[in-house]
Amino acid sequence: MCGIIGYIGNKATKNILLEGLKNLEYRGYDSSGVAILGDNIQIVKEVGKIENLKNSIAKQELQGNLGIGHTRWATHGMPTENNSHPHFSNDKKFAIVHNGIIENYLELKEKLQKLGYKFISDTDTEVIVHLYHYYYNGDMIDTLAKVIKDLEGSYAVCVLSEEHKDKFVVAKKDSPLIIGLGEDENFVASDMPAILKYTKNYYLLEDGEMALINKDKVTIYDDNKKIISKEVLYFDFDTDLAEKNGYEHFMLKEIFEQPSCIKKCVSKYIADNDVNFESFSKIEEIIKNTKNIHIVACGSAYHAGMIGKYAIENLARVRVNIDIASEFRYKNPILEKDDVCIIISQSGETADSLSALRLAKENGVKVISIVNVFGSSIARESDFVFYTLAGPEIAVATTKGYSTQVFLLYLFALKLAFIRGAISKDQFNAYISNIKQVENDINESLKLNDKIKDIANKYCHLENAFIVGRGIDYYLSLESSLKLKEISYIHSEAYASGELKHGSIALIDKDSLVIGIITDESLSAKTISNLKEVKARGAKVLVFAKEGIEGLEDVVDDAIFVPSKEEFFMGITGIIPMQLFSYYVAKERGCDIDMPKNLAKSVTVE
Questions:
Q1: Which of 8, 90, 373, 551 is the most buried if burial means most Cβ atoms within 10 Å?
Q2: Which of 3, 10, 55 is nearest to 30 (CA)?
Q3: pLDDT digits (tens, 9 = 90+) for 321-376
């Protein structure tokens, strides 16, 4: 979940490292630091955001054309200067940065302490730099190979040596790391946005691989230290997508990018009035005959998966089991060879989801992944991958990433239903025609921006919110609740509205806000009845409802009506108002919207 940047070349290293860290700050931002190799290795570290590090570096003379940097999301030890990366060896001859978790660090630490090594941090990472010092024999790659054989867990690691002013080394396992290729300069990074200003050409390291980075050469090795060749990849990407372009926050920009993202998905996956997934023909027979589909994901991707379950079961009449990825392995899941597993992950590097994928494959289950990042670990290890085409999502709280995941799940459900004969050709064509209108429906929802802003300002002072709905509206409530709590820090709970009276209604009082989501007309009367129950206990009631829902006049304090031509696809358009509501509540409360406290974008540790 941390961010790594490395550089060797002729430019001002400290500036490149700072720029790279700023573009990786979504991966973690409780502390940061750089190590630059000139006459010796100089390290500067600061607690807090990158701006603090930038201010400290401005006060110092840091010379050198080789350096590494790190922005941290704490796993071991509080955010302090000692726990921040980079970490020094005791003699200050070596420095490292690391993303991941070393599971056997206590055993290694005890061994190294007996050998006389002194530890100054509470991190698992510090064992790596002391191991490197212990094994060092003058050959940086040979030393690194010995180190990683001792490590259990996940890592992307970069190492500087004071003896080698013209190179540095890297290795990876279960944590992302790319090598950017320039002219008389080379880079490493956790993600492409860190280096896009300088290059779009890169190598993608696989697990167990190492690399020796010079300014004019990159040499890649397998885990047996054998030199291997790699394909140079090109990151086809509009750099404007990584800029705010006049928006106050990335989150607001990304909310308003959702129509264009859906448009890209339509262009990519719908042609000749049909759903066209690349390589779908190879899996079509399996899908056609499967009796069980497993959807596995975390966070917002899990909520997207719940809407996928709703769509698949309603349209295709196939049983769908949905699991939180961090629980999937430990429940001893029942997996049969004709099952299909769908893994959903924005980054494609989510550690728990990757572990679930591997378990499914070990049991002979075909895996489809829905991811945003091309060439990510989950994409590479899946049998089939559907890319969401959302582009880089910088804000930690997902918006366009979520809506494009839901869109692809709808497409999958439609295709599955048709090939299984659960819907007719005429029904299929009608659904395709309607799903093409989702882009327009989102644009109509975005026109509610000013009204939602006014209502958000009215309720932003409340500290407790309950978000309720039935059927698909309950699934929307879960995602809405997550958005509100993660960026505004309001305590928010989502409930199937009929469940409130089974205990939780005891929490309702005059200081409570209850938000009702009502997009399913067939269940609207039931949800309205539940809202009357909380209104009778003094709660403020706000409703986000599909246009045409009636019977709200005597129940609600405020209502936002969401336009939609097709109720079935409200799983996408219905979330837009709550994204905006959460944004404006957080803004009015003075929260750090793009980088909420304690969170990180890419969860690459279990």
A1: 8
A2: 3
A3: 999 999 998 888 989 888 999 999 998 888 899 999 999 999 999 999 999 988 78
Angle at 45 between CA 250 and CA 4, to 5 degrees: 55
d(CA 124, CA 121): 9
The phi and psi torsions of 482 (rounded to 5 degrees) equal -65, -45
To 5 degrees, how large is the angle CA 459–CA 464–CA 469? 85
What does the DSSP assignment read for 14-53?
HHHHHHHHHHTGGG--SEEEEEEESSSEEEEEEESSHHHH
pLDDT over threshold 60, residue 602: no
In three-state secondary structure terms, 432 is helix
Q: Are 464 and 491 in contact (CB under 8 A)?
A: yes
Residue 465 scores a pLDDT above 80: yes
- Which is more confident, 281 or 8? 8
Q: Write out the H or E segment, with its range, that includes residue 412.
A: helix 400-419
* Class of the CATH-defined domain 243-436: alpha beta
Segments of the chain assigned to CATH 3.60.20.10: 3-237
Q: What is the largest CA-CA distance in the chain?
A: 79
Q: What is the DSSP secondary-structure string of 97-145?
A: EEES-BTTHHHHHHHHHHTT----SS-STHHHHHHHHHH--S-HHHHHH
Contacts of residue 293, defined as CB under 8 A and 6 or more positions apart, other chains included, come to 312, 318, 319, 320, 321, 339, 340, 341, 342
What average pLDDT score do residues 114-121 get?
95
pLDDT tens digit string along 404-439? 999 999 999 999 999 999 999 999 999 999 999 999
486-542 per-position pLDDT tens digit = 999 999 999 988 877 787 777 788 888 999 999 998 888 898 888 888 887 778 899
DSSP letter for each residue of 463-480: SEEEEEESTHHHHHHHHH
- As assigned by CATH, the class of the 3-237 domain is alpha beta
Instruction: Indicate where the chain has its CATH 3.40.50.10490 domain(s).
Output: 243-436, 449-588
Closest CA to 410 of 282, 290, 579, 265: 265
The tokens for 127 are 């064992």
- CATH for 449-588 is 3.40.50.10490
d(CA 363, CA 66): 46
State what percent of residues in the chain have pLDDT above 70.
96
Question: Are 264 and 454 within 8 A, CB to CB?
Answer: no
Closest CA to 416 of 491, 553, 318, 496: 318
d(CA 22, CA 193): 10
Q: Please check the confidence at residue 45 and state whether its pLDDT lies above 60.
A: yes
pLDDT of residue 242 exceeding 70: no
Residue 538 is classified by DSSP as T
**Statement: residue 606 has pLDDT above 70:** no
Separation CA 292–CA 312 (nearest Å): 11
Start-to-end CA distance of the chain, whole Å, equals 10
What positions carry a catalytic annotation?
2, 601
pLDDT in tens, 192-235: 888 888 998 999 898 999 999 999 999 999 989 999 999 999 88
The enclosing H or E element of 371 equals strand 366-371
